[in-house]
Amino acid sequence: MGRFIDMLRGDKNTLYYIGNGFDLFHDNVKSKFIHFYSWLNLKDKDHEQFASMMERIYPDSGIHGNLLWTDFEESLGNFNIDKVHQIFAGKEEDGFFDEGYQKRAANIVHDTFSNISIYLKEWAKQIDIEKVKPLLTLGRESRYLTFNYTLLLEKVYKISPDYILHIHNSIEDDEPLIVGHDKPFPQYFDDIENTNIQKSQENLAKEITMIKKPVDQVIKRHRDFFNSLGNITKIIVFGHSLSSIDMPYFKEVLYHVHDNAEWYFTVYNDEAKEKYKSIVDHFISYFNNPKVCGVSQYKNKIKFENCKYIVISEIYRE
User: Fold this and answer.
1) 3-state SS record for 174-241
2) What is the full DSSP assignment across 83-109?
3) What's the whole-model pTM score?
């Protein structure tokens, strides 16, 4: 039959840094954004209306298309306050604004945003992994930092939850799943002459700020996990896009892993390989620039010669 790539084997000094591409590597795991969006439209009228409302709030996002999850989160931050205000706030008639004008648009957006995490967990729970078979030899005592909500590691690979951190929570957690954008938004609109419109748009800005991903708080919450990575000499990045939204997590890992650790990146094609190389180049510059970093023990956390790139199609399956 086939064989596993030795480079993807882990031991107690290995950290797996896992994104949705890891789940999709396994046959029949339907965890793409398009699977979520299709499920919304087929579930029932409430879910379908939610999907429709998201399209109205983000008319230029292509949110109904075959987006990557990182594209979806990026879309959440591309919020046109003027357009959304025009759609949902109501119309001014002779300078008169009814009592609910200032909050009408914000309330509609708030109700929609409140359902994102709820529906996301509901969908993730119904992803069928019962017949999924393990395709890799993963370290039973390795550490796992996963951005996935599913329990593929626990259920399919029988990895102990003690070794796994679901950084954005999982379907088994009581807390909401974490999803969001990384865009800053203004809180005041002093250049708007009409105070009702100004207040209405301020309220909208507060709502879009509420779905900003709380990366700093998440890192602080899991400080013990990151502090425990000092013995990690091998990092396997499997199926993670390393998007700007989640880059602070990657940076935090870099701060804590062993100097001169080996890095392995799974890639789909040459374009992805070049993207990872540019990221590596950025962090080499960062950690070796005392004007930026200034802390000697942070140097040489990542080097070009310590990075290997594994094309997914070259991984043989048993």
Assistant:
1) CCCCCCCECCCCCCCCCCCCCHHHHHHHHHHHHHHHHCECCHHHHHHHCHHHHHHHHHCCEEEEECCC
2) HHHHHHS---BTTB--TTHHHHHHHHH
3) 0.90
- Residue 255: burial class (beta carbons within 10 Å; 0-12, 13-18, 19+): middle
Tokens representing 189?
């609109």
For 1-38, what is each residue's pLDDT tens digit?
Answer: 334 467 888 999 999 999 999 999 998 899 999 999 99
Which two three-digit tokens encode residue 144? 């796992």
Residue 86 β-bridge partners: none
* 33 neighbors 255 (Cβ within 8 angstroms): no
Beta carbons within 8 Å of 31's beta carbon, 6+ residues apart: 20, 23, 24, 124, 127, 148, 150
Closest by CA to 234, choosing from 19, 21, 24, 6, is 6
Our separate counts of H helices and E strands in the chain read 12, 6
Asked if residues 149 and 124 have their Cβ atoms less than 8 Å apart, the reply is yes
Residue 255 parent element (H or E):
helix 247-256
